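Ticket #4471: structure output looks truncated?

Reporter: J.K.
Steps to reproduce: submitted the chain below (272 residues) through the standard prediction queue, then opened the result file.
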Amino acid sequence: MFVIWWGTQIDRTRIGFVANFCPICRELRPFRLMRLERVNHVYNQAIGPGQFTGHSILCCTCDLELAVPEGSKVQPLASPEEALRAPDPAVTALHQPRIELEKRRTEGRLSAAERTEMLEEPFALLESMASSAARVAPKHHADAVNSQVRTIGYLFGAMTIGSVGAACAYGIPPPRRWDRGPSGKQVGYPLMAIGVLLLLAAVYFFVTATRRRVRSVLHPFLTRALSPLAPTVEELDQVLEKYRGRKSAIGRYLGASELHLANQEFARRNGR
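Returned output as attached by the reporter:
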């Protein structure tokens, strides 16, 4: 059956760079300023004119995308270095309280309430991203592609080796009494057992694909945002418990222990 893949999608066009506070990087960063247009597409190829829907900014360091409030006057600059060297004074003034808060964090002068708020902020920021990743694999995401390839590979291996094993076990006539070679069953049964193990592995990767996909999408953002706070497993579990209570994708697919280990690995790699 021939299927036509069509519909609407959001196209992003880079129109320059701006400086803005990144809540994941926890400091002022250069962002790409993007013009968003809703366009009709066939097989992901845009057709016809697009409809302007607004602007967004994309962090040049962590790739976090933030919406630009409607009516905001943003003056794009030519390069990320220029944007960071001469940030918009209005942007700096807007985020100055948060910059001061981050300074107190580095000095270890946060109150318990402020620390809790900082721990919860990236989860709230990424909740919609987690829901999207749980529904559909992100385009061109390496971990999502590798997961699909691995599952297909195990399934193909299970079918191939299992079929060869069954053919050997039941398709080869039993040896004559004077034949000292192995029988078809002696070769076929082990191959069939290997095929069953590969099939179980394919089922496991298929069942856990969503969990691993959500973690692979969110962990890079969360580890960058949380590692400066060095949260404990208990603190992370308290935050995740709130999302489990409302059946959010974050609470369903993220684990405190795995996230804590990812934080430690990120801190080790970056010397924090």
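Triage note (M.O.): checked the attachment and the full token line is present. Strands lie at 6-22, 27-42, 45-59, 65-67.
Status: closed, working as intended.
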